[in-house]
Write a structure and sequence with these properties.
16 helices; 48% helix; alpha/beta
Amino acid sequence: MAKKMGLVLSGGGARGAYQVGILAAVKDIAQQSGLPPRFDYLSGVSAGAINASSLASNAHDFNASVDNLVKLWSNLTIDQVFSTNPLTMGRIGFQWMKDLSLGSLTGTTPGGSLLDTTPLRQMIHQNMDYAKVEQNIKDGHLTALAVTSVDYANSTTVTFVQGHESLPTWDKGRKRSEKAAISTEHIMASSAIPLLFPPIQVNDRFHGDGSVRNHAPCSPVIYLGAEKLLVIGVRKQSTTAHERRAVENQISPSVARVMNTILNGVLLDAIEQDIDRLKRLNEYAMAIPPEQHHKVALRPLDYLFISPSADIGEMAIHKAHKLPRIIRYLLKGLGSLEDASEIISYLLFEPSFCSDLIEIGYQDGLAHKEQIAQLLSK
């Protein structure tokens, strides 16, 4: 009997298009190998939550689901994600200026975000069929969908899980699960990049991007019962061109470069650290003599981790001119556009950029053809 497989999709704003390219490669490799792709557990954070939820609503037809995602990301525009019209940006800017200047007198704090994501809410709602998620679970096409966010009230990582009633729950310090019927609010909450996108209220609490404090992004599908994993990251593993230039030009970092570092630490580091942890645990498990297996619960876990072969931040710099003028103006106030390369890559929801990321993801997926086929066959 085939092992139950989990799909783990990390965050990264517009970088989520890269994940879709990998999935397109998985679709083609499965067709060529005669191995039907089946993800029993879908787990997503931030942009990954959007992709995972879309896959869940079409779990009965993986090929059509991937085709829908390719079409969605290939045609995605910035105004479908956040408002950039002068009236909206002016209102947000005025609110920040007023609250920063008069907050001590009025008792108010600055606005919750720099951008208005009302268009993103509409886009998610229009492209999701939540009834199909539940139907796919009932029909056995899917075991669980997990969407993770952070609770700003107590800094707890909360994973909302929709699936069979028999699924386990967990409460491990700052990590807990909560059974829920996944909705637009859950996906918006998981996608709320700190400072850039506003916090989202789910029930009686405000939540933000699930990458915040999420030190073990692979854990939800493992807790739920996955026996093998496909994990997709969105950052090149080797040193980037921007990092090399920063070392060569030893000058005081701009605010943009500091924000790059902070956002990378918040959004991208956890998945890589979790894979390193998973690798070490597998090494420990395989070192246990067979006659001792009955004494420990630790077992090796099959997994494949794929991340970009290209420097997405460097790619974003060359397409920065496609950002709305007012966004470029704000970023230049923090430093050079080169210093803001990572921020730009999160916000560049633009057809040509996303299409490039899909193509890179597709080629990276094909480069792992043997490993993907092997994972599907286990």
